[in-house]
Amino acid sequence: MLSSSSSRRTTRIRAPKAHSNNKQQIEQSWSEIQTAIVEIQNKNASVLSFEKLYRMAYNIVLKKHSDMLYNGVRTTIEDFLSADVKPKLVSMLSDPDEKNYLKLLNQLWDDHLISMKMISDVLMYLDRVYCREHHLPLIYDVGLNAFRDKIIKDDNNRLGQRTTNLIIDYLNKNRYGEIVDKYIIKAIISMLESLSEDASDSHFGENYYLRSFEPLLMQSSHQYYLEKAAELLSNQSGTMYVLNVKQLIADEETRFQLFLPDFTAPKLTDLMDNDLITANLESVLKLETDGLSSWVCESNIELISDVFKLVSRVDSKKGGGQEA
Question: Name one GO molecular function term (predicted).
């Protein structure tokens, strides 16, 4: 016979743990977000519900899975760039028309920026809560860094080096009178400026343009100025040297304004003035048959005025340095 206590005992039915359901929900949400990211990168964004995607991302962050979401987004973006974008550019390296490579690079870069804007809109809450609290790059910047690492700097900087060499080559062609595409040069340079160095890099705070492109541009320009100076000096004509240097400087300053960032122009100007004026003008003025003494005798005021302007370019810098 059952005791009274036994008869009153009831069986407790435990509610199923929510953990497994939550995990499945998180995984399902992430799967949909991941698929959506690839659709965006493939230019199929019109089939997506951005409101739904935002809610799913919001819930993942709310349930403390931000790290999984952040790392997953980064990997998905990088995988697409490596598998889809990079091969297109690599295949274009053998194109005999080098401009086609630059056009494709610019188009793929523009597409990537559009994709990253949409992806970052979906993940706005992740940016606001997780990225800022942990001092991590925002999702849009994650995309820029991915393009830097998986496209430009990947494979020992293969595409980055190719891009840099082509742009510098175009600038040199323009120096020798060839008409070049101003738009594509400025667009690619702007892209290189947008690619910041990673926080773990010793050059953090710089960008790809400053670290990799500008030094090669300075080196190439230095070589160009030396060659032009040697060519003009070989004529043993002071008049020809002064007039040609005057025109060369004017052409270069126009070129700086057309193609290059404002902060590069002063560096190139200093280099140009040193190579063309400081290094050679004194010996030019001392030429017996066509130097300063002959210009004074001939009262060649216009040419003497040009010389004074050239000297003033370098003397003003010396004076500024002494005052400092």
Answer: ubiquitin protein ligase binding
Token representation of residue 205: 């705070």
Average confidence (pLDDT) per 10 residues, the chain, 324 residues: 51 54 90 98 95 97 96 98 98 94 98 98 97 96 98 97 98 96 97 85 76 97 98 96 98 97 97 97 93 92 95 77 40
Taking the CA atoms of residue 119, residue 121, residue 123 and residue 125 in that order, the dihedral angle to the nearest 10 degrees is 170
Burial-class residue 158 by CB neighbours within 10 Å (0-12, 13-18, 19+): middle
CA dihedral 104, 110, 116, 117 (to 10 degrees): -160
Closest to 111 measured CA to CA, from 44, 162, 163: 44
Whole-prediction pTM value?
0.86
Q: What are 95's two structure tokens?
A: 């194109």
Residue 62: CB atoms within 10 Å: 11
- Residue 196 φ then ψ, to 5°: -75, 155
Going by the DSSP 8-state scheme, the letter that residue 196 receives in this structure is B
Angle at 277 between CA 273 and CA 306, to 5 degrees: 105
**Whole-angstrom Cα distance, residue 324 to residue 312?**
18
Find, among 317, 308, 236, the residue nearest to 273 by Cα: 317
